[in-house]
Amino acid sequence: MNNREADAYTISPELPAMFDGMKMAAVATVLYIIVRCLNLKSPTAPPDLTYQDTPLSRFLLKSCPQLTKEYIPPLLWGKSGHLQTALYGKLGRVSSPNPSGVRMYLPMVDGATATFDLFEPMGNHQTGADITMVICPGIGNHSEKHYIRTFVDYAQKDGYRCAVLNHLGALPNIELTSPRMFTYGCTWEFSSMVGYIKRTYPQTQLIVVGFSLGGNIVCKFLGENMVNQERVLCCVSICQGYSALRAQETFLQWDQFRRFYNFLMADNMKKIILSHRHSLFGGSSGKTIDADLSRLYTATSLMQIDDNIMRKFHGHSSLKEYYEKESCVHYIHNVKVPLLLVNSADDPLVHDSLLAIPRTLAAKKSNVVFALTLHGGHLGFFEGAVLFPQPLTWMDKVIVGYANAMCQWEKQKPPFVCLCVTQMRCG
């Protein structure tokens, strides 16, 4: 046996051990990445609540257990805000129901046509009252989205009538009748829908619900004019950002892949705008938007689209003015009805710095409760055992649970109020 054969004979027994070591290192690396990306070591906990100690808040926390119990997302992926957001945004709800409603058309003074879908309750409300939920979906969304259908079906079964706004231009089969579509904070269409409900059902009381961009719109609507709060029992806002101006810079950062989400949302907005290009830019009436379409095609962020297109629908002179005038942060302090603000700490779209707005508001105003969950992503809040989520989410349950508590609170109030009024008249 020569020296080369001897060397091979002495080295070869070590090779399997070396390969086994490399395999173990590779597996350990993959597991480490999975644990970090899926945030598996993160604990579960009840929502972090900010509120003032009042009879109303004590009644609420006793009557709405979802706010005080531990929120437990699906074990393998539910602690990742990105996967929660992706499942909501791309995959939709699991086994989503298909509630049957009637589409309503409302002409606006500027020639636009607002649409909303009306769903009647599937039974009596537990208080015996007539209650209508007026719902504003997220950006570019409408009544046919899976998360809206799931929530409406659940609310109907609990005795609520539901009216869901279809954002102007969001439905692909509904043409625009004026050179304008929905914007970040325009409340005209939502106001028109609420006005219709109040006129058609003079006995009904309202629960106002807004998701994401819809949360900004409903809070701004209520704060714009005290008249808008008449017959409103309460309001719930889920996963909104409160101030578009403050959020603008954070949306250009790569932290939490926020810049990537910005790109995806901008791409979706471009598709919606271009699907209505004739109504917005090519109408024969002369009432069209002056915009550089080449800049729209090359836009990679919402800010570029807002500056080139969206701000011009309402004549804002600059992007800063558009964001300032259309953000609810300047109106929300005027809301006097009970207000529940819900956000998730791992929401990749809402920067941590924006959460100081609802936290400060809840600390100062007795009608406001701010609930911050550790997990849930953006409009995710899925629940489930290990892998497969339930169709109904924590978000759905907490909105209906809060609404039920407020309806019960209102039912207990009238005798007390009437007694006080009688005493004042007699005194």
Radius of gyration: 26 Å
Principal-axes shape call: globular
Can you tell me the CATH topology of the largest domain? Rossmann fold
Strand element count: 9
- Assigned CATH architecture of the largest domain: 3-Layer(aba) Sandwich
Class by alpha and beta content = alpha/beta
**The number of domains:** 2
Numbering strands along the chain, what is their spatial order in the largest sheet? 1-9-8-7-6-4-5-3-2
Taking the sheet with the most strands, its summary is: 9 strands, mixed
Mean pLDDT metric: 88
| First-last Cα distance | 120 Å
Contiguous low-pLDDT stretches (5 residues minimum) are 27-35, 416-427
The number of helical segments is 15
DSSP helix fraction: 40-55%
Family: Belongs to the AB hydrolase superfamily. AB hydrolase 4 family.
Enzyme class: hydrolase
Active site: 212, 347, 378
GO molecular function, one term: acetylesterase activity
What's the layout of helices and strands?
Layout: H1 3-11, H2 14-37, E1 48-50, H3 55-63, H4 81-91, E2 102-107, E3 113-119, E4 131-136, H5 146-157, E5 161-166, H6 188-200, E6 205-211, H7 213-224, E7 232-238, H8 244-250, H9 258-275, H10 277-281, H11 293-298, H12 302-308, H13 319-326, E8 339-344, H14 356-364, E9 368-373, H15 394-426
Parallel strand pairs: 4-5, 4-6, 6-7, 7-8, 8-9
Antiparallel strand pairs: 1-9, 2-3, 3-5
Helix pairs in contact: 3-15
